[in-house]
């Protein structure tokens, strides 16, 4: 069985830390499997795990990490701050609570989950600044080895740069063949912000596209491997999600081949600005978690 533990390239953050370019994502609503997580850690050599307070699986993930036997220092653990806990005091408490649930003394990466706070009577910018100040302090204290944001657009990043002292180390955004925010990718690269992409398979919708199928045939790979390889080959930190052992193994086996420049461009031309996640959705409205 091919392990990615020695094959998976790493991407350098602006503070010198290195994040594995391929990780395993989790999600809410059935997006976590204990057995699959153990399989990923033990059998596939996965060392980068992405989760969030919102997904409700931090405690379960803690158990899997302990049972896996993988040393803490060999893992890259990312979790996220939910907008319901934005604000200086709440953010600090939420971070330490996530550490407690995960059974760790520090996080490798802590992200603000969304740019909008939806706090009555206060601007989103004001709340973002206050929240980011808390993350900066957590970073300086060593509770978070790196801090970043998720779903932030160029405008949000520019405001944060004006208002704060630490530029986000990472921006995690939807990225797949049909959604390629090149302006945002380029801005992040100019500012030294590592671009991380979720939904690399477009929630499965990319797997049946004729171009992806043609490339899968050409390279004798699966459609999901074509999508993930394309993403990492673009230098994007990529976190496919799966709760099935065979899919996790398949998704990890993307470092033994490369797409040609022409084929990378073929996939690039599939961009249609199709968004699976919309920033305008009030996903957390009325939620405290």
TrEMBL record:
One of its GO terms (molecular function) is oxidoreductase activity. It comes from the Eukaryota. PROSITE patterns: ALDOKETO_REDUCTASE_2 (PS00062), ALDOKETO_REDUCTASE_3 (PS00063). It holds the Pfam family Aldo_ket_red. Keywords: Oxidoreductase. Residues 32-270 form the NADP-dependent oxidoreductase domain. Belongs to the aldo/keto reductase family. PANTHER family: 2,5-DIKETO-D-GLUCONIC ACID REDUCTASE, ZGC:110366. This is NADP-dependent oxidoreductase domain-containing protein. It comes from Oncorhynchus tshawytscha (Chinook salmon).
């Amino acid at each position: 069985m091919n392990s990615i533990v020695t094959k998976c390239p790493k991407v350098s953050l602006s503070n010198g830390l290195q994040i594995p370019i391929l990780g395993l994502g989790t999600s809410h609503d059935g997006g976590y499997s204990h057995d699959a997580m153990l399989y990923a850690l033990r059998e596939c050599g996965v060392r980068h795990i992405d989760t969030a307070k919102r997904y409700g699986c931090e405690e379960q993930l803690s158990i899997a990490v302990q049972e896996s036997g993988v040393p803490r220092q060999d893992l890259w653990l990312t979790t996220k701050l939910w907008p319901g806990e934005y604000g200086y005091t709440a953010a600090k408490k939420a971070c330490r609570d996530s550490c407690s649930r995960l059974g760790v003394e520090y996080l490798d990466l802590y992200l603000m989950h969304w740019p909008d706070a939806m706090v009555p009577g206060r601007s989103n910018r004001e709340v973002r600044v206050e929240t980011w100040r808390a993350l900066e302090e957590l970073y300086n204290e060593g509770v978070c080895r790196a801090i970043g944001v998720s779903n932030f657009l160029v405008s949000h990043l520019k405001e944060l740069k004006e208002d704060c002292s630490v530029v986000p180390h990472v921006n995690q955004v939807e990225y797949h063949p049909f959604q390629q925010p090149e302006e945002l990718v380029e801005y992040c690269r100019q500012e030294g912000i590592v671009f991380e992409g979720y939904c690399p398979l477009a929630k499965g919708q990319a797997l049946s596209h004729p171009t992806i199928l043609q490339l899968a045939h050409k390279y004798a790979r699966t459609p999901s491997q074509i999508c993930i390889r394309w993403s990492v080959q673009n230098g994007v930190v990529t976190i496919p999600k799966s709760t099935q052992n065979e899919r996790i193994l398949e998704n990890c086996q993307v470092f033994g081949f490369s797409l040609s420049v022409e084929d990378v461009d073929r996939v690039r031309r599939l961009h249609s600005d199709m968004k699976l996640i919309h920033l305008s959705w009030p996903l957390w409205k009325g939620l405290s978690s």
